[in-house]
Amino acid sequence: MTDVRIERDPLGELPVPATALYGIQTERARLNFPISGLVPLPIFVDAMVWIKKAAALTHRDTGRLPARLADAIVRAADEVLGGQHRDQFVVDPFQAGAGTSHNMNVNEVLANRANELLGGTRGAYAPVHPNDHVNMAQSTNDTIPTAMRLAALAELPALLAGLDTLEAALLDRGRAFDDVIKSGRTHLQDATPIRLGQEFTAYGRTIARNRARVTAAAAALGELNIGGTAVGTGLNAEPTYPARMVQHLRAMTGLDLREGADRVQLMQSMGDQAAFSGALRTGALDLSKIANDIRLLASGPRTGLNEIALPAVQPGSSIMPGKVNPSIAEMVNMVCYQVVGCDTTVALSAEAGQLELNVMMPVIAHNLLFAMGILGNAARVFGERCIRGVEANRTQCAYWLERSPALVTALAPHIGYARAAALAKEAIALDRTVRDLVIERGVLPGDEVDRVLDLRAMTELGVPGAPRV
Question: Quick one: pLDDT at residue 446?
Answer without folding.
Answer: 78
